[in-house]
Amino acid sequence: MKRILVTGSYGQIGTELIGALRKKYGGENVVATGRKKPPAILKEDGPYLQLDVLDTNQLHAMLVDYDIDIVIHNASLLSGTGEKNPQLAYRTNIEGAYNVLEAVRILNLDQVMIPSSIAAFGPSTPRDNTPNDVIMRPTTAYGVSKVFIELWGEYYVKRYGVDFRSLRYPGIISAETMPAGGTTDYAIEIFYEALKNKKYTSFLDKGTYLPMMYMPDCLKCTIDLIEADASKLKHKSFNITAMSFAPEEIAAEIKKHIPEFEMSYEPDFRQQIAESWPASLDDSVAREEWGWKPDYDLAAMAKDMLEKLSKKLDIKY
Catalytic residue at 98? Predict the structure, then answer.
């Protein structure tokens, strides 16, 4: 059984990914790490260790001590937070990814998966049905860091034979974890506000389409790519998506369940970020090379989100 170490495991994706990995591979084979004191869930069924990926000695020692085969490097500063502190985004995203790739190379580990993002694209990229292989000139610190990760990771494949893989995550919607400073966070906040206050003010304007994915599909595609046969992967970085919608469309879907829900719009600095990203993605490469197929569309996701959050918040609707 492979042993997996996950960085940034207290983040939006990491928190739920740890549970999914431990369920599949066994708790003792999945090491959760992060810089902060972890939520209780990360200490259940397996180890949690404090790790600063900028500390190369600590990183190398941990990989050796726990006999790690695969690293999933999720530690990253997201788009909104990155624009507020681009210097920290550089250190966390670029230097952190470099340190992880170097550790995998030096220790000759089996595989490393470092997520990319739709932020890796930019305003010069075709926005509709964005191809997997296309010009990438992002205008955010977060996006620039993701292009570096993709290109540096693929360089390590060619130069050193490292098994690097990456997913360009769209906006991820979760019923379990709160937003973490991203431009797609409205698609999570809207459900909480719909249940609690029956209204929401979106920081993105009407007509702002973005690719999205429900967390169960995010976990599924991550594990699927880790397990994919390397000999069948012609690419190393993949577009991945499940749906695409604008704020008014998710609002309309919520109104089917909560008729009194009201939506207003006050775009902020994240509007400009969103307009530089794809409106929809072509993920046919992932479907062809490793059989990707999502389980949730907008209607199924909205129904499940409302059911889970209403129980979590103890609110009837």
Answer: no
